[in-house]
Automatic annotation (TrEMBL):
Secretion signal, residue range per the UniProt entry: none
GO molecular function, one term: dioxygenase activity
Source organism of the structure: Pseudonocardia eucalypti
Source taxon at top rank: Bacteria
Database matches in InterPro entries: Cholesterol_7-desaturase, LigXa_C, Rieske_2Fe-2S, Rieske_2Fe-2S_sf
Database matches in SUPFAM superfamilies: Bet v1-like, ISP domain
Keywords, comma-separated and alphabetical: 2Fe-2S, Dioxygenase, Iron, Iron-sulfur, Metal-binding, Oxidoreductase
Listed Pfam families: LigXa_C, Rieske
Protein name: Aromatic ring-hydroxylating dioxygenase subunit alpha
Coiled coil: none
Disordered as annotated region, ranges: 450-477
Length: 477
């Protein structure tokens, strides 16, 4: 990749082309649980902007600039009162919309406050995550709705949200999520756990329709065939592992279907009935948060269990991993020889964290050697670079879902299962149709994705050109 393209695709601060592209989409800015305190005020940093998110007495959320308009004091430490956030320096009060409601140190007849505003952004709260729209909308223009993805359509009790900090650029965090081969190595466990004890854990279940633990399949079949296709929301990625060892005759194939959702999200299976949609939102160019929404098709999520599993590995209030660069991830060489590929314990989030932080703060993509297993990454970078150019030229990215919540669901629908070899599309459609029919909330949605992304033929796969360091030079039409 050219250095100039690497900069273009990784930098998202105000005024950058990548930042303008990102600002066409809703960004997760906080977990709703971060506001569950007697002073609901948090200071998110998003796309290089320092903001304050607060909930006033009547429940309205405000997402505003962190600096007071008067002389720049830090509103994150302001007084939450009188319907807004009041600066502790001279008492100026700001409402959730950024308007100045009071300037108590000014003369009684002062009209100053009617001329003062701080930057504020539209906010939505959905299924445990607070979203902000940081784009330029212009006076009186409403932001688009959140896209009609399953994770937003599901009732709140069928979802669970969590987040985690990564000490590197957001693109590294996304790219590990669209790389189906790494799971056979980075996440390898030498022993399989009882899959009955897998609730809430990634790669610890049995694949749909079988007793085979995912860990065994990933370990024994390290060369997946990867197919990818562009879709209206991003990309569908299919990893096929034909099962022909240990007495299996190759007539069945492990099928894992995941998705890239623009600009920085993925949707992947956790189990047969639970999906994870995860966004990788830049804090700034050197760090990011992943925000995950777990969505269950069949029953309400046991949030207490899932939260407890995840709280173990982080510190609050920043959701920073306990294992990190500073303590060498508590790497254990004995464990690496005998139990796991990484020597970092069982939490796959930590494995991914070490992989992506190990690439450096902003990975230098001018020096990499892309291989065939990187084809989804190659496709993503091409699509993203083109989208950035489109926005720079005043256009709208192709991969922008503008739905309101009542149109058909776009899924996207992931899968981890074992079906007849050579028939992954039919197998995907039929197993997904059964699961959705049985779902208390998804059965009513028109599931356009049961047979593939709406409007995108399954044959629209990427040509296999990724085994070349010039993968970007061969420009896409
Ligand atoms: S700096 Fe905020 S009121 Fe003066
Ligand atoms: Fe991973």
């Amino acid at each position: 990749m050219r250095a100039e393209d690497n900069r273009k695709i990784t930098e998202t601060g105000p005024g950058t082309p990548g930042g303008a592209w990102m600002r066409r989409y809703w960004q997760p800015v906080a977990l709703a649980e971060e506001l569950d305190t007697d002073r609901p005020v948090v200071p998110p940093r998003v796309l290089g902007e320092d903001l304050v998110l607060f909930r006033n007495e009547d429940g309205t959320l405000g997402l505003v600039d962190r600096r007071c308009a008067h002389r720049g004091a830090d509103l994150a430490l302001g007084r939450l009162e009188d319907g807004g956030l009041r600066c502790y320096f001279h008492g100026w009060l700001y409402g959730p919309g950024g308007d100045c409601l009071d300037t108590p140190a000014e003369p009684e007849d002062s009209r100053l406050r009617s001329k003062v505003r701080i930057r504020s952004y539209p906010v939505r709260e959905r299924n445990g995550i607070v979203w902000g729209f940081l784009g330029d909308l212009g006076e009186g223009v409403a932001p688009p709705e959140l896209p009609s993805l399953d994770c937003f359509a599901a009732p709140e009790e069928y979802t669970f949200a969590f987040k985690g900090y990564l000490d590197c650029n957001w693109l590294q965090a996304l790219e590990v999520g669209i790389d189906p081969a790494h799971a056979s190595y980075l996440h390898r466990f030498e022993r399989d756990e009882d899959t009955g004890d897998s609730y809430g854990k990634q790669f610890r279940n049995a694949s749909l329709g079988t007793d085979l633990p995912m860990t065994k399949i990933l370990r024994e079949y390290g060369r997946p065939e990867i197919l990818n296709a562009r879709t209206e929301y991003g990309q569908r990625i299919v990893a096929l592992r034909r099962l022909d060892k240990d007495g299996m005759d190759g007539s069945s194939t492990h099928v894992r279907i995941t998705h890239q959702v623009f600009p920085h999200g993925i949707t992947i299976p956790l189990s047969a009935t639970m999906a994870i949609t995860q966004w990788h939102v830049p804090i700034d160019d050197l760090s990011c948060y992943w925000y995950a929404m777990f969505t269950s098709l069949d029953e309400p999520v046991d949030r207490a269990t899932m939260r407890a599993q995840r709280l173990d590995g982080i510190t609050l209030p920043d959701y920073k991993p306990v294992r990190n660069r500073a303590n060498n991830y508590r790497f254990d060489p004995h464990e690496q020889r005998t139990q796991t590929y990484t020597g970092l314990g069982p939490d796959i989030n930590v494995h991914d964290q070490m992989a992506v932080e190990g690439q450096g703060y902003i990975y230098d993509r001018t020096r990499e050697k892309l291989s065939r297993s990187d084809r989804a990454i190659v496709t993503y970078r091409r699509m993203a670079l083109r989208a950035i150019d489109t926005v720079a030229e005043g256009g709208s990215p192709d991969e922008l879902l503008r739905d309101t919540a009542d149109v058909e669901s776009r899924g996207p629908i992931p899968l981890d299962g074992i079906g007849p070899t050579g028939e992954w599309e039919r197998y995907w459609a039929s197993s997904v149709a059964d699961l959705r029919k049985a779902s208390p909330w998804a059965s009513g949605l028109r599931a356009a994705l049961a047979t593939g992304p709406a409007g995108v033929p399954g044959s629209d796969v990427e040509p296999d050109r990724s085994e070349s360091t010039d993968a970007y030079a061969s420009s896409e039409s």
